[in-house]
Design brief:
A seven-stranded parallel sheet has the order 3-2-1-4-5-7-6, with helices on both faces. It has 354 residues and is of the alpha/beta class. Helix 4 links the parallel strand 4 and strand 5. Helices cover 30% and strands 20% of the residues. It folds into two domains: 160 residues, 3-Layer(aba) Sandwich (Rossmann fold); 165 residues, Dihydrodipicolinate Reductase, domain 2. It is globular. It binds NADP nicotinamide-adenine-dinucleotide phosphate.
């Protein structure tokens, strides 16, 4: 804790608690020393106890999921996490902010600064475009101070978290050509949410690998927006996501031409310097590369790289748990900063895997 005295617990609510990111938030928040969870909401599962929807939570929390009512949430909670599908958060988020609640939205609804990008990439008109300038992109490794002061956090997408953390140090130092970036990501099926759909049906996804959203995935503008900010010039990327028969985890490989010859050891030194003091990014030693299993259920992002002198390109690999650093853990990390708590509160879970 940043203060010597135990702070009073912050009253928080989770909208969309019956989904995967909502339940993951609850798993983290029920054991968080600075939090009291006061309300949960659901849509089709409204009026059901959360411990029936997720029996692993029985004995830890016995709240009943209610229908979503922003006025009722604002009356009880200081902070509301929105774990809703995109397009469902816009109006609710704007309403809650107007009522003085601090909001952490896990959907894409406040991530893009340009309202026109919602028309292009998501096919809808934004209902609260005036909030897009104010919303802070909730990647603490890049925006820590703005997050601490924010009323509205746009928690990054899972793929963008792995890509932006994986490549920012090289762009920040001008070491890679920003016009040659190719990003390939592989995700587990929980990235698509709990609601059953055909592509994530067991017999469709198991024992198979496929690319999807090729050339048009909605996380592309978010990656470009943030990498452009880091580079200080417009960055375009080729981003290709893939679905793998894993429950959770994302592995991302990023390649680009180096601005000049650099050894692997030199580039790893740049990464270590860039992420100095950032608890959740682990820069691996030369000769080691990340694996999803080493970050599962944690808020960690592992990063490793190889400088390929033969092609003049760098190959960066990053790994996260899509439901933790890719969503709910990152949201809790942002909440900690907003509440003036240790950034790691409720998140420090070492030694899960050898
Ligand atoms: N899954 C990931 O790895 C991941 C990572 C980063 C970001 N995200 C983003 O986080 C958000 C939640 O994702 P998820 O994977 O948790 O989805 P999910 O498992 O499908 O859960 C969605 C939740 O929202 C509720 N809901 C659905 N429509 C609603 C509406 N119109 N009004 C109010 N509540 C509604 C659902 O309630 P019922 O179940 O009761 O119907 C459920 O609680 C999405 O925007 C997603 O893009 C997900």
């Amino acid at each position: 804790m940043t203060t010597e005295e135990t702070p009073r617990p912050r009253r928080v609510a989770i909208a969309g608690a019956s989904g995967y990111t909502g339940a993951e938030l609850l798993r983290l928040l029920v054991q968080h020393p600075g939090v009291e969870v006061v309300a949960l909401t659901a849509e089709t599962h409204a009026n059901q106890p959360i411990s029936q929807l997720f029996p692993s939570l029985a004995g830890f929390v016995d709240l009943i999921c209610r229908p979503l009512d922003p006025a009722a949430l604002a009356a009880e909670a200081e902070f509301v996490f929105l774990a809703l599908p995109h397009k469902a958060s816009m109006a609710v988020g704007a309403d809650l902010v107007k009522r003085g609640v601090r909001v952490l939205d896990l959907s894409a609804d406040f991530r893009l600064k340009d309202p026109a990008a919602y028309r292009t990439w998501y096919g809808f008109e934004h209902l609260a475009p005036s909030l897009l300038g104010e919303a802070v992109y909730g990647l603490p490794e890049l925006h820590r101070e703005e997050i601490a002061a924010a009323r509205l956090i746009a928690v990054p997408g899972c793929y963008p978290t792995s890509a932006i953390l994986g490549f920012s140090p090289l762009l920040a130092r001008g070491l890679a050509d920003p016009e040659t970036i190719v990003i390939d990501s592989i995700s587990g099926v929980s990235g698509a949410g709990r609601k059953p759909e055909l592509p994530t049906h067991f017999s469709e996804a198991n024992e198979s690998l496929k690319a999807y959203g090729v050339g048009k995935h909605r996380h592309t503008p978010e990656i470009e927006q943030e990498l452009s900010g880091v580079a200080g010039r417009p960055v375009t990327v080729t981003f290709t996501p893939h679905l793998a028969p894993l429950t959770r985890g994302i592995l991302t490989t990023i390649t680009a031409r180096l601005a000049g010859p650099r050894s692997t050891a030199e580039l790893l030194g740049v990464y270590r310097e860039f992420y100095r003091g950032r608890s959740f990014v682990r820069v691996l030693e030369e000769g080691r590369l990340p694996e999803t299993k080493h970050v599962l259920h944690s808020n960690l992002c592992d990063v490793g790289l190889v400088s390929d002198a033969r092609t003049g390109r760098v190959i960066v690999v990053s790994a996260i748990d899509n439901l933790v650093k890719g969503a709910s853990g990152q949201a809790v990390q942002c909440f900690n900063l907003m509440a003036g708590l240790d950034e790691r509160a409720g998140l420090w879970i070492p030694g899960l895997f050898p």
